[in-house]
């Protein structure tokens, strides 16, 4: 039966397709700060840089800022579109799912639709749980949605509604820790959840440069070699970031350890809270031992200058990027046991340096242990570094990314109908796995370029190659038995699904075709009539490719809304 190449009958839709190109991923950031860059922004930037080896990335941000500037520097296309957030997803309330649907009726929703339609991405990624509108818009256009969860959604009686709402729009969920992903697994979504913990920036200085950087920064801060620097770092400081417990700990240590110096880095987001902490230091009599820095351009220098890093977060963290960077620089880290932060510390063997949330006395005890035993502090720091390299290093991160994309290909082959490795043939999904496409015509198919490292992991079919031909006059016609076994596939730039008959009349015709192998007379008559009238539609088909894409996506969107 398979002695000759299997043929797929295809209808041309739209302009001629280009040669194999990377699939396009449009990523939506919920914020773009102008002076400092938050952990969520930093994670998104690194995610784009790494997945950019597989996808063409397009970043959408609410305004210009640090993130957009860095993205452009790394060759990532940027667009500005300010979309409203649904902050209630982080602190769920009754009716959150209904409010998500109501986003469709806002002017900003039309902006999101227009932006997505104009770029025609293969997939859309929305960053953080509160960035709901991009997911709703992409879903209405039939575009796969990846939802990246970087925080722990607060638990209350309405949390299940928020989780189910995200699950309704997301085809896939990326959690930055097991803790962040746990609510989705508990809701039965484990089969579409990937855990990809963050990694550090590849450009961070190597260990052989640390001593030079340390001496340079400590000289600038006027720290002596005998001083022990205990550091606190946060992009923005407010009560949830725990500056007050840090100050309480520091002032108690001042009474027993005169060589301690405390460096606090972060911009005041809650000025009243920040000023209260500064005032507490000033009236203590130990103000000369404290350095407050609202902004530090090169955080690498900061970690190099520190001896102990403290992260006294008062809320459950999705992960703890500051802690991870401290581990990279071989620093002993002390933290409150909060969510993904606990997960990180325990994974590298530093669970003993976790304190109960809010307990500044426990922080004092842990810091004193390290201050009184320099060998323990050094051993702890280097063990942190070694274990973090194994679990969170750049190579581990890349393997997890590639594994996830491979899962997408296996689970959703319709997302990637035709694929091609850089130096291999065009492949299409068929019975038993991937099958080679014979003499692929760019006018008929849109081929997505994928790395060999991913393609080689996919199953190959033992069946012979397939041929894609143009349906119509002058085209090669498939064998009759092939027509019966393989329905027509519309191969346009955005047509991913087989055309399924929807009316009762068409279903009856299809049933008769399967039973007899012949089409009804009325069906043949309609086909001839369409062929005779095709000439009158020639000028219509010659519209510009731009207008064709707009009308096509508009129809697709209107059907979904």
Taking pLDDT < 50 over at least 5 consecutive residues as the criterion, the unreliable ranges are: 1-18, 472-508, 510-561
The level 1 CATH classification of the largest domain is Alpha Beta
Mean pLDDT over all positions: 84
Helix coverage percent of residues? 40-55%
CA radius of gyration: 29 Å
Structural class: alpha/beta
Annotated CATH homologous superfamily of the largest domain: Glycogen Phosphorylase B
Q: What is the end-to-end distance?
A: 44 Å
Number of helices: 22
For the secondary structure, the number of strands is: 20
Q: Could you say which overall geometry the principal axes of the C-alpha atoms support? A: globular
Assign the CATH architecture of the largest domain.
3-Layer(aba) Sandwich
Question: What does the model show?
Answer:
There is one protein chain. This protein folds into 3 domains: 1-20 and 420-499, no CATH class; 24-195, Rossmann fold (3-Layer(aba) Sandwich); 207-392, Glycogen Phosphorylase B (Rossmann fold, 3-Layer(aba) Sandwich). 42% of the residues lie in helices and 17% in strands. The two termini are 44 Å apart. Helix 10 (271-282) links the parallel strand 10 and strand 11. It has a 7-stranded mixed β-sheet, with no helix packed on it. A 7-stranded parallel β-sheet has the order 4-3-2-5-6-7-8, with helices on both faces. A 6-stranded parallel β-sheet has the order 11-10-9-12-13-14, with helices on both faces. With 561 residues, the chain is an alpha/beta fold. Helix 4 (107-119) crosses helix 5 (133-140). Residues 1-18, 472-508 and 510-561 have low confidence and may be disordered.
């Amino acid at each position: 039966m398979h002695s000759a190449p299997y043929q797929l009958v295809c209808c041309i839709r739209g302009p001629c397709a280009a040669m194999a190109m990377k699939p396009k991923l449009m990523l939506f950031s919920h914020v773009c700060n102008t002076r400092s860059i938050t952990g969520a922004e930093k994670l998104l930037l690194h995610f784009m840089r790494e997945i950019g080896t597989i996808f063409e990335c397009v970043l959408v941000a609410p305004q210009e800022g640090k993130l957009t500037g860095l993205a452009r520097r790394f060759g990532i296309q940027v667009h500005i579109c300010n979309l409203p957030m649904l902050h209630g997803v982080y602190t769920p309330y009754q009716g959150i799912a209904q409010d998500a649907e109501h986003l469709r009726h806002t002017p900003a929703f039309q902006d999101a639709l227009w932006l997505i339609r104009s770029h025609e991405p293969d997939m859309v990624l929305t960053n953080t749980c509160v960035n709901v509108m991009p997911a709703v818009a992409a879903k209405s256009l039939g575009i796969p949605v990846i939802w990246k969860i970087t925080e722990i959604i607060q638990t209350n009686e309405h949390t299940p509604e928020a989780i189910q709402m995200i699950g309704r729009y997301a085809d896939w969920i990326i959690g930055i820790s097991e803790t962040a992903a746990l609510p989705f697994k508990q809701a039965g979504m484990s089969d579409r959840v990937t855990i990809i913990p963050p990694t550090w920036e590849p450009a961070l200085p190597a260990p052989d440069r640390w001593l030079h950087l340390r001496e340079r920064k400590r000289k600038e801060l006027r720290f002596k070699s005998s001083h022990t620097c205990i550091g606190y770092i946060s992009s923005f400081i407010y009560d949830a970031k725990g500056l007050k417990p840090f100050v309480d700990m520091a002032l108690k240590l001042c009474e027993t350890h005169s060589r301690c110096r405390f460096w606090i880095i972060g911009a005041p987001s809650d000025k009243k809270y920040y000023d209260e902490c500064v005032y507490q230091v000033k009236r203590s009599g130990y103000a000369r031992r404290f350095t407050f820095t609202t902004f530090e351009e090169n955080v690498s220098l900061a970690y190099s200058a520190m001896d102990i890093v403290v992260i006294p977060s008062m809320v459950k963290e999705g992960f703890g990027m500051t802690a991870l960077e401290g581990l990279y620089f071989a620093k002993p880290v002390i933290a409150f046991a909060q969510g993904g932060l606990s997960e990180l510390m325990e994974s590298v063997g530093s669970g003993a340096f976790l304190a109960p949330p809010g307990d500044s006395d426990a922080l004092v005890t842990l810091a004193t242990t390290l201050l009184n035993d320099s060998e323990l502090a050094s051993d702890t720091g280097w063990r942190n570094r070694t274990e973090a390299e194994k679990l969170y290093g750049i190579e581990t991160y890349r393997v997890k990314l590639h594994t996830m994309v491979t899962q997408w290909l296996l689970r959703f082959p319709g997302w990637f109908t035709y694929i091609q490795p850089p130096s291999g043939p065009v492949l299409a999904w068929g019975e038993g796995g991937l099958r080679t496409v014979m003499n692929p015509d760019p006018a008929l198919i849109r081929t997505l370029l994928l790395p060999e490292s991913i393609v080689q992991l996919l199953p190959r079919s033992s069946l012979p190659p397939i041929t894609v031909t143009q349906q119509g006059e002058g085209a090669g016609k498939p064998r009759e038995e092939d027509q019966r076994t393989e329905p027509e596939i519309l191969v346009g730039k955005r047509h991913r699904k087989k055309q399924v008959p929807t009316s009762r009349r068409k279903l009856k015709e299809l049933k008769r075709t399967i039973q007899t192998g012949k089409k009804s007379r009325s069906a043949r008559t309609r086909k001839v009539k369409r062929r005779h009238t095709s000439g009158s539609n020639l000028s219509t088909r010659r519209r510009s490719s731009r207008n064709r894409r707009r009308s096509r996506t508009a129809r697709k969107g209107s059907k979904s809304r």
